[in-house]
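Hi U.,

Before I forget, here's the chain from the pilot set. I'm dumping it here mostly so it's searchable later in email.
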Amino acid sequence: MTVSLTDDRVRQIHFRAQRLVRQSPETRSSVVRLVKELCGIQAQDARAATLAVRVRSSGLIAADVRDARIQDSTVVRMWGLRGTLHLLAVEDLDWLLPLLGPPFIAGIGDGVRNWAWMRTPVHEVLASSAAYLRPMAL
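Structure:
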């Protein structure tokens, strides 16, 4: 059976899945619950992650995110999905780390082996990069 969805319906489903629809004030969520429901919140920029929590919740503020990370230790900011920093629920780490860790570590390993310049003294790197550092003539 084929299901046909309009563009508007697809957007509605996407917004609902991302918790970007208006939340009832009675459904006040906790930071950890929100992070778990979304399987993480992108957090390369910690302030943007706090805003991402705020826009997806009713009543949560920056202090709630800080408390979940520092005081309660229910949420951590660490490398997760796509090898980028995310807010992740501590209780999800038991299944997330075995799932995401090996590909991430393998990717880092390949990259580090190819980054010979990391073992080169800084002055040599700068000397060989001088042509790239000069202003380009237009």
